[in-house]
Amino acid sequence: MLEVGSLSCSRSCYFHIRQDGDIEYLKKNVKPPTYEETLDALSSLITKRTRADKSNKGDQFDVLFDYVKILDLEDSIFQMKVIHVAGINMHIYRIDTAVEISEDKFLAYFWWCFERLKEKSSEDVPMPTYFRFLALLAFKIFAAEQVEVAILEVGLGGKFDATNLATPLERLLVRKLQKTPAFTVPQPSEAMGVALQVAHPLDSSLLNGLQLGLQGEHQYINAGLAVALCRTWLQKMGHYEGTYLDQANSLPEQFVKGLTTASLQGRAQIVADPFVNVEGPGDAVFYLDGAHSPESMEICGNWFSLAIKEDTQHYGSLKKQPYESSNVSNTALRGPNEFLSMNSIQILLFNCMSVRDPQLLLPRLIRACANQGVHFQKALFVPNQSVYSKVGSHALPSSDPQVDLSWQLQLEKVWKNLVHEEKDSTLEESKEDCEHSIRNSETSIVFPSLPLAIKWLMDSVQQNRSVRFQVLVTGSLHLVGDVLRMIKR
Q: What is the pTM of this model?
């Protein structure tokens, strides 16, 4: 363990990370900063500048090397072994699940980095912005915890991405790219600019009857890439014993465990709302996925459609159990559309960043769901609570009457046009579909805040106790995170 030493901060708190990794609080008479206060400090680094804005010198790539010197990372960061991941909607990978960073240790590392950067900041080397600070903090933790290998996902990507700090060796090997192991999932021919090895989707039979921890058929593509990367890394590092790395028709036990127990909040995540406590079957279930590209919206729609069919089938079976025992063969023979008509309503809770094009996102979602007989009875459009303001897990801000809803109104307009087109292309609404509609005949609502939208949902559940509300939350990871904080607090 690398000793970080005494960590001081402007709030007169002092931490010490001992050789055994434990945190020692040195200043006995001063209350240390709380986790929420730490997140407030992190929020202070959020700006509204885009990457194209060159008005701030802190956005220049070269200043990152100044930050590295300030944080005493010059040697360790360039010796760090890194697998660099880039691509649309690649998931964030976590290295060595045996190494957990406790909240106290996170606070110690955070304030050491934050205060040292603040003390050394100047006009030419200002405080790093939000993502850059988090990347630097991660490098400090990786170095101090002496991880064997770090897997990093790019931020916005490109030549000047902060994560490029840890890959100087790759830049030096540009002329020898043919000898650098590289993997990708199947891509259009024009994207295959370099000689890549294609990592094929994982064969589910290799999981010994288990399922991937991350839901969705597309995860077998991601899993195939992860397996290829891990095999290659272990082989290059000489770890052959007992892992059967050269056998394509089998997976090491450790691989199976990792693939089947992996979890990632906000990606194909299902959460039953804990606040609903009413008699009868009426309730709300949230389906959360941070999809925010056309491709991922289609994947999200397919996942949601399959998930609610499975949920409705299970739900319908449970309803019949008091009368027909536990045998569910009758319900299992019902068609998927009949399951969807069993007192369930599909609601979309949506927002996306203004840099996204809703004309590309929403149609992919609607079509993917419609192809499987799933239609949203209502769409709720809300502003994100956290983006460009602050991060944290405490109470979300209340509704601001002055909030600008022009973007949400634009999203609603796109939605209404799409719904109108969809209705024109279908036959007369069935009686069951009409029964599913909420009392308000409008197909969408714009709310000035997320809490108001959640309150509307809960009120609707109370007023419709025979209905299960299946709520898809998508379009923004910020939105998904905000909803999780509200329904899981």
A: 0.72
